[in-house]
Specification:
Elements: E1 2-4, E2 17-20, H1 24-36, E3 41-45, H2 53-61, E4 68-71, H3 77-82, E5 90-93, H4 98-111, E6 116-120, H5 124-141, E7 153-156, H6 158-172, E8 177-180, E9 183-190, E10 200-207, E11 230-231, H7 235-240, E12 246-252, H8 263-267, H9 269-278, H10 288-311, H11 316-327, H12 339-375, E13 387-390, H13 394-403, E14 410-413, H14 422-428, E15 432-433, H15 442-445, E16 453-456, H16 461-474, E17 479-484, H17 487-500, E18 506-510, H18 511-523, E19 528-534, E20 537-545, H19 557-560, E21 566-573, E22 583-586, E23 589-592, E24 596-597, E25 610-616, H20 618-626
Helix pairs in contact: 1-2, 1-18, 4-5, 6-13, 6-18, 10-11, 10-12, 11-12
């Protein structure tokens, strides 16, 4: 174990953040906590040269960065003590080995019962057990002296945290996203003095300069004399301020409504059955291979029937019947018949041995193709402006569930009939093609030419890229969002696709990059729902119980607003998650019912039994939670 130039002695480091890992998620997490959240960060690396360690080390060499580095092969007790876990506010464990993360989490909880733990886990069931175990350990080991601390264990999968961004990118385009109570929101830039849209919920910021979601302003210098970006401005400022580049609005992407039932629920079972029978793919039994095999069998039967009729004259039916029995080895031995008949029987038996396997194989292939096509449900011929989703694995299934809470139509392509999302697609009545999206013609059957967006979420980076390039050739203007595992590869692909198709939108998403903000939010406390970067600042979205907060309790929504510090976005009941009536399930997935009113009246009075969603600056959140006004020393706060 070695320390790289620690600027702050271990004994003096307090309330900082510790990250253990060296992959893309660890690097993104360090950048987010440092640059966006303004937190002091210590990163524990297994090696100085492997993975993303050189890039993380570059953060440490930045004289303006508070990122500290510690090199240790394993996150054992000695390493965690050296990283200052005993005094740290939060610890993130991002190793790709679940067992290493579990072991380190148990050690950290023993060293510091009040630390917030954020653990990356691929096994979701094991992660849920770990959360309960470590939270119970807080009660057994912690001695907080009666103070209310945010001691929590949060187990996250980077797969799940990527879903809201993928849904928003496909449904509405670019913008930072946020998921609250099963709903997806995004920050969208509106030009100054633009009338509010129906999906807009609140003004989050007045922008001073170029914003990542405002392509027109990327090369525009700041207007002289401008006062700078204002987070959470009042209504007058947000709509009438001069010399602004626009307003950042919180826009609702998904809506809580039950997906439309399949046609059989609306039209009756009889009508649905007739419709399905009429559209069953009977033509698979007329495939070239099937016709060739059964044509050869018919030719052989005809030849043997003619030979039988010449050897033993008789009725025509008998001349055909006897060769068929012999081919299928169903006839009795012709020991008492003529030599010609016995020879023909032997020939028919040998022909049956050669032909029957081909007949069985062709029949089974046609039956399997019929079954797959029957399970699938092709889109209507007049469908347009829809989203094509390729891949129904872990991510694809959850993306489909959330896409169906939007107003968009979805067409799904999945080549594996046993994929976990196929049953959900059938339950939702979503058009489904059980084919390989890379095969020519499949994207055309999904009506890619008329589609709004293409989401490619298979597990193979190369396959994803092939599908996207094929779709671009068919529809150069389609909005494309693809999942790629490698962060650098994702950035390279995105730049290349944008250069090749400048008039189209291409978003290549690395799972680790999408997971960084949710992991950062969890490190800042269980009450923090998400973080949204805004130019050189950041907004935190939190849930707060109104009881005990004089700035909220007994005040109206309008009176509870504090300019530049916090804004109440939604109001709900302070009911614990998991209570009766709070959740619903569909296809084995948890779909939260709306627990908050996102459009509360400004005159609504907040009571002790209410729970609110608040957008705040870091300074505002500190003041709201502690009642102590912090010193405005950090502009990012």
């Amino acid at each position: 174990m070695s320390t790289l130039h620690l600027r702050i002695p271990v004994g003096q480091r307090s309330q900082h953040m510790v990250i253990c890992g060296d992959d893309g998620l660890a690097r993104r997490l360090a950048v987010t906590l440092d640059a966006v959240c303004g937190e002091a960060v210590t990163v524990v690396l297994p090696s100085r040269r492997e993975g993303h360690a050189p890039e993380i080390a570059a953060l440490h060499r930045d004289p303006l960065s508070p990122v500290e580095l510690l090199v240790a092969a394993r996150p054992d007790e000695q390493t965690l003590r050296a990283a200052g876990v005993e005094r740290a506010a939060a610890l993130a464990l991002t190793y790709r080995d679940d067992q290493v993360n579990v072991t380190a989490a148990l050690l950290a909880r023993t060293l510091n019962p009040t630390i917030r733990l954020v653990v990356r886990m691929y096994n979701r069931e094991r992660g849920q057990h770990l959360e309960r175990l470590l939270d119970r350990a807080v009660l057994a080991l912690g001695r907080t002296g009666g103070t209310s601390l945010d001691m929590s264990t949060t187990v996250l999968s980077d797969t799940d945290t990527a879903v809201p961004e993928l849904v928003a990118a496909a449904a509405v385009g670019q913008g930072d996203t946020l998921q609250i109570e099963g709903q997806v929101f995004r920050g969208v830039v509106r030009p100054a003095r633009t009338p509010p849209q129906s999906a807009d919920l609140a003004t989050l910021a007045v922008l001073s300069g170029a914003h990542q979601d405002d392509p027109a302003s990327e090369d525009s210098p700041e207007t002289p004399g401008e006062e700078g970006t204002q987070l959470l401005p009042d209504t007058v400022t947000s709509y009438h301020r001069q010399f602004t580049h626009g307003r950042l609005m919180l826009e609702e992407v998904t809506h809580h409504h039950r997906p439309e039932p399949p046609p059989r629920d609306r039209c009756g079972y009889g009508a649905w059955l007739r419709d399905r029978l009429a559209h069953l793919p009977w033509k698979v039994f007329l495939a070239r291979e099937v016709l060739a095999v059964f044509g050869a069998l018919a030719t052989i039967v005809l030849v043997l029937a003619v030979a039988t009729a010449l050897a033993e004259p008789g009725p025509l039916w008998k001349s055909v019947y006897l060769p068929l029995l012999d081919i299928f080895t169903m006839g009795d031995p012709a020991t008492d018949e003529s030599p010609a008949r016995r020879v023909l029987q032997l020939l028919a038996g040998f022909v049956g041995l050669a032909v029957l396997p081909l007949v069985v194989a062709a029949t089974m292939n046609a039956t399997e193709a019929f079954r797959k096509a029957s399970v699938g449900h092709p889109p209507a011929e007049d469908l347009s402006d829809h989203i094509v989703l390729v891949g129904l694995g872990k991510i694809g299934t959850r993306v489909l569930a959330q896409l169906r809470t939007t107003a968009h139509q979805v067409v799904v392509i999945e080549r594996d009939p046993h994929a976990r999302g196929v049953s959900l697609a059938r339950e939702l009545g979503v058009p489904l093609l059980l084919e390989d999206a890379g095969v020519p013609g499949v994207l055309d059957r999904a009506r890619i030419r008329q589609s709004r967006s293409l989401l490619v979420l298979t597990r193979d980076d190369g396959e994803n890229l092939d599908i996207v390039m094929a779709a671009r050739e068919i529809n150069p203007r389609v909005r494309v969002v693809m999942r790629l595992y490698d962060d650098d590869f994702a950035a390279t692909v995105s730049r290349t696709m944008r250069a090749s198709y400048p008039d189209a939108t291409t978003r290549s998403r690395s799972v680790s990059a999408l997971a960084a903000l949710p992991f950062s939010a969890a490190m800042m406390g269980r009450h923090v729902l998400g973080i949204m970067p805004v130019e050189r600042g950041a907004l935190l979205f939190t849930t707060v119980d109104v009881a005990g907060h004089p700035e909220l309790e007994g005040r109206s929504i309008h009176q509870a607003f504090r300019q530049h510090e916090w804004r109440v976005l939604a109001v709900g009941s302070a009911v614990e998650p998991g209570s009766p009536g709070s959740t619903d399930t569909l296809g084995g997935l948890r779909l939260d019912r709306p627990g908050f009113d996102w459009r509360p009246a400004h005159g609504l009075i907040l009571h002790a039994g209410d729970r609110v969603v608040v957008a705040s600056t870091r300074r505002g959140l500190d003041f709201l939670m502690t009642g102590v006004q912090p010193h405005p020393t950090d502009p990012r706060r």
